[in-house]
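// run 5 | inverse folding | seed 20
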């Protein structure tokens, strides 16, 4: 087709490694990481207060994203997940964060989303420590000629 040009996205070239400080949690289970440049990148698996090293930092969908390569020093809100597959699973993305910090971060997200309304609205109780999910998405995979149900690993088809 003549006249059609392929659009090229303005994507930053991924960097090797960048140090950062986790300043909070964001929607979809990501951690907000402050970089030395002052910019904020999003990466899964961080807990508020963590000092981390990010790799593959680049623009994706208009925001900086990266992958936590190493945790230099864990923050006080980091804890051991109670589920043995939490690191591989794509479900409960904040299990490595203490329940108290999870509640605080969820309140902050709600306040950011609701603006002035959140300042006047009372909080009616606490979220439970476990089993608060109301929805899940299981997938079927053929394994040895049989369909096997399960969950996908975080941001993958595995």
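// decoded
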């Amino acid at each position: 087709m003549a006249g059609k040009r392929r659009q090229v996205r303005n994507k930053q070239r991924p960097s090797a490694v960048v140090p950062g400080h986790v300043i909070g949690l964001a929607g979809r289970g990501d951690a907000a990481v402050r970089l030395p440049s002052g910019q904020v990148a999003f990466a899964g698996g961080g807990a508020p207060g963590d000092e981390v090293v990010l790799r593959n930092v680049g623009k994706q969908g208009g925001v900086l994203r990266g992958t936590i390569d190493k945790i230099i020093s864990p923050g006080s809100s980091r804890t051991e997940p109670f589920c043995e597959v939490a690191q591989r699973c794509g479900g409960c993305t904040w299990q490595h964060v203490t329940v108290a910090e999870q509640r605080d971060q969820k309140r902050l997200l709600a306040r950011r989303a609701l603006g002035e309304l959140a300042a006047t609205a009372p909080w009616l109780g606490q979220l439970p420590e476990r089993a608060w999910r109301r929805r899940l998405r299981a997938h079927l995979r053929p394994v040895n000629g049989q369909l096997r149900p399960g969950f996908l690993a975080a941001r993958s088809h595995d």
